[in-house]
Amino acid sequence: MRIALLGELEVRGHDKRDVVVTGAKQRALLAVLALHVGRAVTADQLVDALWGEDPPPAVRNGLQGLVSKLRRALGSTGLVAMRGGGYALELPPEAIDVHRYELLVAEGRAAAAGGNPASAIALLTEADSLWRGDALAEFSYEEFASIAIARLSELRIAAVEERLDMELQLGRHQGVIGELEVLVIAHPLRERPRGLLMIALYRNGRQADALRIYQEGRRVLGEELGLEPGPELRQLEAAILAQDPSLDAPAVARPGPATWTQHHSTIPESLTPLVGRDEELRDLARLFDDRRFITLVGPGGVGKTRLALEVARAKSGALTYGGCLVELAPVGDPAGVRAVIAFALDVADPSRLAEMIGERDLMIVLDNCEHVITTAAEVAEDLLRRCPGLRLLATSREGLRVGGETIWPVGPLAGDDAVQLFVARAQAAGARLELSDDLLLAISEICARLDGLPLAIELAAARTRAFPIQQILSRLNDRFRLLTGGSRTALPRHQTLRAVVDWSYELLFDDEQRVFERLSVFPGGCDLATAQAVCADEDLSGPGLEDVIHALVDKSLVIAVRKAKELRVMQLQTLAQYGREKLAERGDSARIRDAMAAHYARLCAGSAAAYIGDQQRAWLTAVDQEQDNLRGALEWAVANDDAETALTIAGGASWPHWLAGTMIEGKRWLDDAFACGREASETTRALALTGRALIDFQLGATERVDADLEAALAIFRHHDMVASMALTYSFYAEVAAARGDTDEARKRRLEVLAFYMALPDDPFLIAARAYSQAKLGMLDGDLAHAERCYREAADGFSRIDRPVMRSMCLGMVADFDERNGDYRAAIMGLEEAVETNNALGLRGFMGALLARLGWALLQDGNTGRAELMYQRAEGLARRLNNAPVVFLALTGLAALHRLDGRNGDAATAGIEALELYLVGGPRRLANRVDPRADVLTAAAVCCAVLGNVAAEGGRGEQAAQLLGHAEHLRNDAGAPVPTFQRDDLDRARDAAVTLVGHDEFLAAFERGRRGQLGDDVAFIS
Amino acid sequence: MQGNCVDSAAEQRAVSASEQCHGMTRRQRQLDELRDLCRCGAVARAIDLAFEHFADFGRDDDIVDLLADALERPEAPEDVLRRFAELCASQR
User: Which of A231-235, A483-487, A626-630 has the weakest average pLDDT?
Assistant: First the structure.
């Protein structure tokens, strides 16, 4: 169900049909509850909102009656629940457009703050498209809505201003003038849009107009408010008068091949401000103007990573495709280096990294290369050679020794900076410092003693909770004296950090030491629940363990970060390494690593249960977040020939790999696991066989798929493992259908249905039966039956929150909606599917969903959003090597470029699409009502676009042939001319007739209808 | 105290968190460890850990007494005595 408040109130049911809610009070009640979705609104608040200060007698009865009527109108009593003396609307926040809008704006702002203006623009554009009119339009005179209306209206204006600002940052000063003029007229007292308009006009060579805008603003502000313009606007006017070069448009990077269309930045924000390093930042930023590969070298703890991230943030914002952090510390096996880089860049096939990066301007930070230095160097060299726009920033203990590398030694912090860092970290640790000269001198001595190493300084500063500064100094002096045998000679620098870490470790109680060591086995850090599972023992568990972890955080030996509302703890690479050494010295290494691997094996063992159960969302999120740890656990299991653990992890993670589009990584995991010598249990083996079959099938290696699935099914049947059978059956029927073996597919689907029918009713099985019935309907050609069953299945899966199955059903339901001409319904369903897949990191289907959404939007006349969706689809599909979706996306983009009069771009996209279509390209699309027809329809669109371009280019005969071939493809598909192409086709026909004459046109048109594309029908000129 | 009553505090110091370790608090575990360190002569480390303990749980005169007892030997090094004095002077 969807409720829209950004305009007149609209309600759409699960079946996408409008839900009629009549009566002003009922509608107002729904609006109030929707604004507070998921939270209880007290009866008093509702009475106040609906009746104001003059409620009628027995108003509570009136309220109850209103709630009953609303429940009937919505078709479900469960949606408006009584809770805590009030009522709550039980829908997810994303069902309300206001909340979706706010989320998109927040994401857009985060992208902007992260230095990704292109991404931010896309998100803010998408956000703005949710508005259909004024917010809460029919309630504008109601008290309850006034605050929300004011807030949302202001948010909208601010978001639009931010988007236009970023458009200017990307050099798009021509396209924004119109929108800015409207904004200035509508909000004459707002200075920001006025300033942006001034900049846009100036950059368009209209400096007189820019100054006129300023003068108008000055007049209006003076007349209305008696104010002068603010300092920024005044400074802008002065800059324009002086023709200051800083106003000039930024250099726009030349566009690369059309793959990524937006910033891909994954450089994280830092948790604390960077102290010192101003000069280094400036010098490195300047160096990157004419160098492409810089390696920051230095000992552990000197701050290489921190400096690299700051440089990357500063420089990548100006690059078209931003910056990407690749953390190599968790990579145990050098063969995994390419895979980790590919994963960070959303590239499905690591062997095609260079091809995918192409010519784009992008910065990659390769952090912590030293333990995989040879492979990192090879990959770096390959990428730099083949990707001319790529910049690499690496951190390592030593250089990678690659041609073109600039080695930049990172030195310790200079005196004042070191002191500043110490003071900042001590204050953060809770120390109350009165910074007298004596104290500063002592701190300065400590920093000198610690050779200005930031990590050493942080560890020492963390101890100011317990020790006065002078005592920290004296202890460090004592320790170092011990290490140098009492001599006044300074400790060798590479030993300084070690000495401080030793000292810090020895200031831990035994329980703290144990937990510190045990946390070092998690390459990806861990959440508190996992720490409990792996690090606890008979002395230490529950709140006691958490206390110890918090103590380690206070002592800067562990970092706590919030990821998706969960607290995770992790260690810096240097400290993790130290922890692993101590763990080994204690003789606990194997036991704790075994426990860690077993923990993640248990997670993956829940694979089948998650497929059908109500923990699906949480499980998929966990698997996505724990990729580094899963990889680490698998490597440990494989190294110890532990087939049981290895196959559980690789097998359990296989269908998430499929959904995430990381099948090549998934295959590598399975291959490594199957290579283990020791035996695993047959049920574990069966889980891995299911995973192998799925991934092999998706990768086109089908020889043993049926054998693997049948073997797995036999084992699961024998052990009566219902969830595992459901998981395996879901692929078993599909593989036959996908290869076009209808009889076998029907036979298998009937077997699946019989399996579901034999089980006791429960909501999942009811929905799964409907899904199977839908599939049978498709196989039997009974589309009406299939459509009913898909809708029923989608509703069923929605009620029990099975996002994966629901989004599969939504794709099919959207297809039926389109066929029924209900593009709005199709758009809604596909948007929900896209959101679901996005939230769960399931990139595998995203491209196809985005392309389909683009098509529905195009049909609905929403060309701006359609172009955005197609661009995203194309970028994702190219990275994941999904040719059918690349084909669809290019088709859509060709049509859109043509509608926009961009014939050159239209031709480029259309030609590439048809080349894909011809050269062993797509013949059937997955999950479609008519998979073949949709391919033909798309190819027809391309031919029509190119026919139009040919006609406008004066090539009448070519135009006629292409138009003829387009008609042939449409006839074969049984599809009409798309609405958005009708006028264009008429124009093209007329133009071609004018060029070659009526008879010649008909002859060429007929040749096109009968000929083969490419051989007889030329589409490239 | 009257007549032959025994000071119970000395008896209670012997109660060990490690024997009933399950569910013991962090504070109790640390007390246990400090006691063990003193028993085995690692007084310097015990003093430093006492600083940490006081930072988390506040000053505890029982711990000061424990350490003082452990230091009642003629060969206690100068720097250890100095650290103990710093601990005693500590306000935390």
Answer: A483-487
